[in-house]
Input
Amino acid sequence: MATSAESSTITLWDVASQRRKGAPLRGHRSVVNAVAFGPGGRRLASADPNDVRVWDLRAAGGPSVKRVIRQAAVLSVVFSADGRTLASADESGAIRLTRLASGGTSGLLRVADAAVFGMAFSPDGRILIAGDEAGKITIWDVADRRRLGEPGRQGGSVNHVAVSPGGRTFATTGDGFSARLWSHVIWRDEDELRAAICELVGAGLSRAEWNQYAPGIEYRRVCDE
Output
């Protein structure tokens, strides 16, 4: 586990013994706003008001910074399940996608004009779900950097997002100690959605039904009569 307080350091903890693990990580110049482990626990991403740092926690000489990403006012960081992509979201509503293997930036998503606090990748890394300070939730296609839909609002700021292991549903938490489980199914594209609807119901949906199950996507009849 990793924690940060009102300082520029990060503390690593051994969960089993509940003791600190090694010396604090130093290198940030200001308060650390967000931390996230990569898959397997080798990498750690951390963000302060000036930049994002990617650490190798198992380097031969001890934990060390392997990458610095220049992005101001980052409030949330998250790795894809394969560890190849890092998403970093800032207070302006922008999300930067960084390909860690190549060292390049694969794209910039503009969510809104509100700070983004919560993000999560789908298990296959193809979908990114983001929630902002205004309560809006947005679903993105990572490869195409295309907005797939906006299933609704949390009702207050979205602070955290988590996707189910199957990658089809997700949960959000917000202000007022509220949590919401979204029954809307996550689809990468409309063709996949239409095929699934036809298989399940065997007929086209009315506009009201379409808006319930596929919010944010333009209405179309999906099955042949």
